[in-house]
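Sorry to interrupt, but I need a hand with the structure work. Could you add the entry underneath, on a fresh line?
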Amino acid sequence: MTQLLIYILAAHFIADFLCQTKWQATNKSSSFKALGAHIATYALVLFIALIQSFPLREVGMYVGANALLHFVTDAISSRVTAYAHKDYDNHRALFWGTIGADQFAHQAALILTLPLLR
């Protein structure tokens, strides 16, 4: 269980940070097209990471649930960070606090949906 969780969190890091394009990162706060592209990339990486170890139906449910939760989380957090970034000197705590809360929400979702892989 611990190894699976570490593996999933590593896949999350790769998908959410390393595979996110600059266009997705800078536009997802104002464009559902950019946000959707980010979520599609995220879901694909998570799917590829899990498909060798779990049945297709379970992987599909897990990835689908996390893609939806990731979309909702980023739709909110990207808009808050965009607002805070405009006046970073006065909203530094809001900016970094939102990034931390965003990652906490993603990790909590990944953990709470693990029963879908059983």
User: Anything to note?
Assistant: The chain has a mean pLDDT of 97. The two ends are 11 Å apart (CA to CA). Residues 2-117 form one domain. The chain has one domain: 2-117.
